[in-house]
Amino acid sequence: MILERLPVGVYSANCYIIGCEKTGEAAVVDPGGDVDVILEKIEEFGLKVKYIILTHGHGDHIGGIIELKEKTNAKVLIHADDEYMLKDSDLNLSSKMSIKNIEINPDDVLKDGDIIEIGKYKAYIIHTPGHTKGSICIKLENNILTGDTLFAGSIGRTDLPGGSHDSIIKSIKERLLIYDDDVKIFPGHGPATTIGIEKITNPFIV
Prior knowledge:
GO molecular function, one term: hydrolase activity
Strand content: 25-35%
Low-confidence stretches: none
Pfam family, one: Lactamase_B
Organism: Caloranaerobacter azorensis H53214
CATH class: Alpha Beta
CATH superfamily: Ribonuclease Z/Hydroxyacylglutathione hydrolase-like
Number of domains: 1
Helix content: 10-25%
Protein name: Beta-lactamase
Keywords: Hydrolase, Metal-binding, Zinc
CATH architecture: 4-Layer Sandwich
């Protein structure tokens, strides 16, 4: 499996490319900007983008979505509870960020337990409300892409519309920390970590 991290956009949000070497199918998670960089890496791997998956609806994670969809014709997927944000630049905060206003309709909406097939690999959708109502994490084999829910040594902010501190702590403890210590965490900002490391070092959840 190809799992490539690309910090993109003015906020250096982590964009991830998930690819299947056998079929050439790929998904791009959180294209926050720098679409030329994303497409260059896609071409380097010889992949075709089938899905654009959003972990949540904030501007720093969706800044490149319109351009990427235009150039790949990939299907845009977001959790149903964040769909409203994607359609309104004020609600997704892109109008308040140093990026162009983003307003787009998703091709489909996600729910907890959905499975997205990317070639021979399966991406399992985990609904983790807290940072936003529709925040999701994506489990791929022994890896979890956590968006802005869980970071190395920190958690996502909850002071924005739709955020809830109690909900994010509940999501992390009941939906993420249940996995084995060696499961790798790939967050929406910053470096990778593991479930085990966060269990014993993250001050927000220990």
